[in-house]
Amino acid sequence: MPHILTLCGSLRTKSSNAALLAAAGHLAPAGVTVTRYLALAALPAFSPDLDTVEGEPAPPAAVSHLRSALQGADAVLVSSPEYAHGLPGALKNALDWVVGSGELVGKPVGVLSASAASQYAHPQLVEVLATMTAVVVPGATRVINIPRREADAAALVADPACAVALREVVGALVAAANGHQVEANAATR
Fold this sequence. Notes:
Number of helices: 6
CATH class: Alpha Beta
Structural class: alpha/beta
Radius of gyration: 16 Å
CATH topology: Rossmann fold
């Protein structure tokens, strides 16, 4: 069964996007592992100069940690708020660190937004991921409008409409990850 890594674009402790991702993890089918990536704030500001030392690959430890986490995942689920009509800087910075190294190339990715008011960041995130040649899974990409403040994963799991939507998102992402694994196995034969 697949391993899904979740990335939250918000660094807030009580982020509604983090609650949405946590609820998705609780609703994942048996056997699917869902791991939260919690070190977004540890990443240095992106600079290609920091990725090498004397021409040899030598990324900062936090960057290696991100790349390793993404590489080890079969699929990625991202949820992000919108700040000033755009992506939060911490999330965009993290994505910039993996453009050249390619951990998202061909990887199934779902994109969530916890607010219908997010009219710009959600499509921007889809565009950035598609440009990076991640496989943005349509059935795992949607806006699920939830309370903006003090959202709680347990309450979201208990909400019938939210739970149905999140099960559909995770199900679509699991199906895409399983299909990706089959293709990868066939390619190595």
